[in-house]
Amino acid sequence: MEHRPIFIGGLSFTGKTQLRMMLSAHPNILISRRTHLWDRFYNRYGDLNKPVNLDRCLKAILAFKPIRALHPNAELLGMEFSQGPRTYERLFALLHAQNARREGKSRWGDQLGFIEYYADNIFAAYPSARMIHMVRDPGSRSGESRESSPRWFGHIGWETAWWLSSARLASRHQKLYPKQYLVVHYEKLFTDPEQTMRAICNFLDETFYPQMLAYGEIEKHSAENQHGLLKRDLHFIRSHAQESMKDFGYSYDDLQLSWHEQILYGLSLPINLAALLAGTYGAGLGQREIIQTELSV
């Protein structure tokens, strides 16, 4: 059986959920949300050819709340898995395919922030897979994040590090997997949803259906709204992400800070720089556990 999964990745507040809803309105596609199979279970239980490892793995997966939401048939899953290679990627595919069949869909997928970290493994496992990476202007994204989550010291440094890490992966994967990897701008999805969804359907080799545009609240979003982000925080983001922003087509006017804002910027600079360096170092080591804003929700 050929699996043609669709993965939606990127940071929080980049339109992943909106895109998942729109794609799941397609008659052939069902996209689940945050099953965490790759970041929490992949290769965590040893060789699944060993019954004791397989038993531990299945118990952990089937007890996990996001997986229970898929209403898996454990007996059927075990039977199907025993009839082929006992690999993690095949187990994940069977679980998703079972859920898609139940909903009358022929193609499955999953939405998870930073799934792009696993792109190499995913494409090796599923040669026909497609991954859509959502990106957004970092100032606008951080502004909305600030409204939705508590603010802490170094918050903007961490936010900038996460955005840069995700942006670098987007650039890398698009070059390595030009036919399997698509970068989609949040701004384009919300300002021109029909053209954007037609392009996405073309990328997925699927027919575009107008009913895909009926899901979500596109008209309530504004790509230009900075959501009250402090000017000094926006200045920090642009100062350290400007080259990557240009690579993704994001332009901006220079900010002029008042003397009061300059003082506050200087006071917050050391902690934000420390957070930026720590976040960059952690991402470079592959320590995805430090990126909790998206993965722990």
Folded structure, characterized:
- The chain is an alpha/beta fold.
- The chain has a single domain (6-28, 106-295), classed as P-loop containing nucleotide triphosphate hydrolases (Rossmann fold).
- Helix content is 53%, strand content 9%.
- It has 14 helices and five strands.
- It has a five-stranded parallel beta sheet with strand order 2-3-1-4-5, with helices on both faces.
- The longest helix has 26 residues, at 259-284.
- The protein is globular.
- Residues 285-297 have low confidence and may be disordered.
Descriptors:
single chain; 297 residues; alpha/beta; Rossmann fold; 14 helices; 5 strands; disordered C terminus
Number of helices, counting only DSSP H or I runs of 4 residues or more: 14
CATH architecture: 3-Layer(aba) Sandwich
Q: Order of strands across the widest beta sheet? A: 2-3-1-4-5
Which CATH first-tier class would you pick?
Answer: Alpha Beta
* Euclidean distance between termini CA atoms: 33 Å
CATH superfamily: P-loop containing nucleotide triphosphate hydrolases
What's the SSE pattern? EHEHHHHHEHEHHEHHHHH
β-strand amount: 5-15%
Domain count? 1
The percentage helix is: 40-55%
Class by helix and strand content? alpha/beta
Low-confidence stretches: 285-297
**Mean model confidence by pLDDT:** 85
Shape: globular
Describe the biggest sheet?
5 strands, parallel
> What does the radius of gyration come to?
20 Å
CATH topology: Rossmann fold
E-strand count: 5
